[in-house]
Amino acid sequence: MRLLLVWLINAAALFALPYLMSSIKVDSFVVALIAALVLGLVNTFIRPLLILFTLPATLLTLGLFILVINGLLFWFVGSFVDGFHVGGFWSAVGGAVLYSILSWALSVIFLGENQT
Questions:
Q1: Which of 20, 40, 49, 71 is most enclosed, with most CB atoms within 10 A?
Q2: Rounded Cα gap, residues 33 and 39, in angstroms
Q3: Which residues pair with 24 in a beta bridge?
Q4: Domains of the chain: which residue ranges?
Q5: What are the 10-residue block averages of pLDDT along the chain, 116 residues in total?
Q6: Exposed e or buried b for every residue in 62-75, given b needs 16+ CB within 10 A?
């Protein structure tokens, strides 16, 4: 049940993102559900491998390279899922940051616990 609530919260955060950034488009809530699912799968399986492979760059930039990885993965999902459009690389980096902040805030509000 909790996993379903987290998925719905992430989809709601993704659906709200175009109201904050005009360079990101989500056609419908169903598209937001699919994109949130794909983002979750990509962040679960691909992101740890990318972080491991780019560990020297991450250490050299004191962890800021993870923002680049998050932006690239967000941009990749935007090019992969029909109905979810990301304007470019910097839009993807900003969108990934806003998406994580929105999903965290909604999780704190609706799940009632701090997930830090």
A1: 71
A2: 10
A3: 86
A4: 2-111
A5: 94 96 97 97 97 96 96 96 96 97 94 69
A6: eeebeebbbbbbbb
